[in-house]
Amino acid sequence: MIRISTIFITLCMVLVSISVGVVLYALIGLRASESAVVALAVLTVLILYNAVSVRMHGRNNAQSQIADLSQGVADLARQVSDFGRRLAAAESKIALANSGGSDRLQSGLQSALGEISELGGLVRQLAATVAAHDDLLNLPSAVSAPAVEPPPPARPSDRETLARAMSAAPAVIRATANPARIHNDAQILATIQNAIETGGVDTFLQPIVTLPQRKVRYYEAMTRLRNARGGYLAAGDFIPAAESAGLMGQLDNTVLFRCIQVLQRLHSRNKDAGLFCNVAAATLGDPATFARCLDLLEANRALAPSLILEFKHDALRRLDITERKHLAALTQLGYRFSVDHVTNLRIEPRELADRGVRFIKMPASLLLDQRQTSASDIHPADISDLLGRFGIDLIAERIENEGAVVDLLDYSIRFGQGFLFAVPRPLRQDAAEDATDKARLHANNTAGPAQAGALKPDAIKPERSPHMTGNAALARRAGGAA
């Protein structure tokens, strides 16, 4: 249907062309035929101009419509991509929730299996104890009174300690009929009690260095007990006997007191120094002993960022309800934890991080063992990054040669510890202040928790560790001599 505007424009063009022809005929005096030709030419020009202008206007409208359509398509694509991202995020959250539930279910099953295995071990231990008692009852009188030299007379306090230890630890003394073993255990228990009472608990420090710079970042406090001959008992020699006799609580209280004292002296020279202090799981399970340790740690809460409490990996996984509650109390005070004695690469970083663990120690031989790669769900080179996602630092311990350091650098491990860097060294201390510390330690074990914050820093200085030099064999011999 022809629009009215088109008819109007056509009439206007016809009128304009006729007007031009009339003007040329009347005013200029052209002939009628010439005036008609000029009018027709003017009409043709006007028609061509109108057609071109209409065509150009239609093209501009088409371009604007195409631009609008392109913009609408772009907006639609952006909205579709936004909806896609939201859908992917929702699916990931649902998958994470499902995996978290399975992880919690798996951790619960593992805890139940651990408790079942622990109950089985207790049953086996009870059966062995009953069998040992039957054997002792069936022994003849000649065997029950062996001809051995009696131990030297002990002080009244030692007699009470030995009686309490023998009654509380039948697995150590009664489970064997070897008189030499009984005599040796009795001597170890007497040494432990004497060291607790007289302050004969010495502290050795071994540095933990950064890799590859080998700068000292932390220290680990290692406990050594002095015996009557002036020698030292390593932790592996007296801890089993102390745990069986129920003396680990007193020993840990003494060690914590000593670690706080050492850390105060380290902070007098370096505020960034940290100290690892080993604590037995039995201390968490004993309410009376833990109460004294908690009072001591709460009184020195300012040292919480620098004092790392270290537990065995297996012991931390088998904590009961009371021990977990005590561990949570330490976490509320701001203390961080470390685990050692890791025997395989199957660890649960999420569970450890939830319990406040911020460091994990693994032997270098375990990380570099190719057999562990096939037996584990993750490659050892990825363990450090996996732990780092949960805020846990990996420390490679027991490093004894340079080749191990080179291999561990490929695993992105930040910290190392071992005889290659330094052997455990005793502290140099002033004799007069050492006597005062021993008296305070004795008062701490007998009268209650000591306020270590009131201690005055003395002249104790840890031996500095060599960074790049040292033969592993010489370091091992030096460590044995210390």
Written account of the structure:
Among the domains are: 4-79; 156-341 and 418-481, TIM Barrel (Alpha-Beta Barrel). The chain is 62% helix and 11% strand. α4 crosses α6 (179-198) and α8 packs across α18. The chain has an 8-stranded mixed β-barrel. It has 482 residues and is of the alpha/beta class.
How are the SSEs placed, and which strands pair?
Elements: H1 4-28, H2 32-138, H3 141-144, H4 156-168, H5 170-173, H6 179-198, E1 201-210, E2 216-226, E3 232-233, H7 235-245, H8 248-267, E4 274-278, H9 281-285, H10 287-299, E5 307-312, H11 313-317, H12 321-332, E6 336-340, H13 349-354, E7 357-363, H14 364-367, H15 370-375, H16 383-389, E8 393-397, H17 402-409, E9 415-416, E10 425-426, H18 431-447, H19 472-481
Parallel strand pairs: 2-4, 4-5, 5-6, 6-7, 7-8, 8-9
Antiparallel strand pairs: 1-2, 1-9, 1-10, 2-3
Helix pairs in contact: 1-2, 4-6, 6-7, 8-10, 8-18
Brief overview, please?
With 482 residues, the protein is α/β, with parallel strands linked by helices.
Keywords:
482 residues, alpha/beta, TIM Barrel, eight-stranded mixed beta barrel, 19 helices, 62% helix, rod-shaped, disordered C terminus
Structural class: alpha/beta
Query: What is the count of DSSP helices, taking H or I runs of 4+ residues?
Result: 19
Q: Helix proportion of residues, in percent?
A: 55-70%
According to CATH, the fold-level topology of the domain at 156-341 and 418-481 is TIM Barrel
Describe the main β-sheet briefly: 8 strands, mixed, barrel
